[in-house]
Design brief:
Elements: E1 2-7, H1 18-36, H2 39-49, H3 53-57, H4 82-103, H5 105-126, H6 138-151, E2 156-161, E3 164-169, H7 170-186, H8 195-212, H9 221-230
Antiparallel strand pairs: 1-2, 2-3
Helix pairs in contact: 1-4, 4-5, 4-6, 5-6, 5-8, 6-7, 6-8, 7-8
Length: about 230
């Protein structure tokens, strides 16, 4: 298992990643409110504010106060347990600040929300009649990591492989993550993880970054530099 720990800090345009910090704070606060509730209330929250494809398809009655098409905006702030929350927030903390730097605060927030929405759309298209609600920030964060590898493919990321820390280029870490999602879909892995949602977030991130990035952000910068040197 490859577990990222931290990356090289290299922000140029924003002094502090306030949106990334705000998203992490909101996710943690919502989860604390979840675990402070009774078991029955927690279950209601997941079904009312998680995204359930069957509700959007009209197979099930709406379980909450929001229209089903709005629940992709709320489900990305819900998590099932501390491990789920910690893993997602770690990825967001490591990779989010540089994407926020490349987009600016407001466009980064728009980017994050749209990637989260796209991830649920992919989940819906893959299993329209599922009655299992999707919750978690991983779809939106998949978009963030896709954007990161497009702007900093050769940045060094410290990771744990088993219990051994090593430094590797971002394209290895994120490439392995993306390949794992595709392999899990192709092999029909059934482990309670919505891999199609991750793929939807990755695709959204790849599509949105070129449109929303700051004009001076160069895509695949280390690749471009190598090509220039070779010429």
């Amino acid at each position: 298992m490859v577990f990222p720990l931290y990356d090289e800090t290299a922000r140029k345009r924003v002094s502090q990643p306030y949106v990334t910090w705000g998203l992490i704070t909101l996710n943690v606060a919502v989860f604390i409110a979840e675990v402070a509730s009774s078991a029955g209330t927690q279950q209601w929250i997941v079904h009312a504010f998680g995204f359930t494809p069957a509700m959007l398809a009209g197979d099930l009655p709406n379980a909450g106060p929001l229209p089903a098409w709005l629940t992709p905006l709320t489900d990305m702030f819900l998590h099932l347990d501390w491990d789920h929350l910690f893993g997602n927030m770690l990825f967001l903390m490591i990779f989010g600040d540089n994407v926020e730097d490349a987009l600016g605060h407001v466009r980064y927030l728009v980017f994050y929300v749209v990637c989260g929405y796209a991830s649920d759309l992919a989940y819906f298209l893959s299993t329209m009649h599922s009655t299992v609600p999707a919750v978690g920030a991983s779809g939106a964060i998949s978009g963030v990591v896709a954007a990161y590898v497009m702007i900093r493919p050769c940045a060094k990321v410290e990771v744990l492989i088993g219990i051994i820390p090593i430094s590797v280029s971002a394209y290895w870490v994120i490439g392995l993550f993306a390949l794992t999602q595709v392999w899990s879909v192709l092999s029909h892995t059934q482990d309670g993880i919505a891999y199609w949602a991750h793929i939807g977030g990755l695709i959204a991130g790849v599509c949105l970054l070129p449109l929303l990035r700051h004009p001076d952000v160069v895509l695949f910068e280390c690749v471009s530099s190598a090509d220039a040197d070779a010429a």
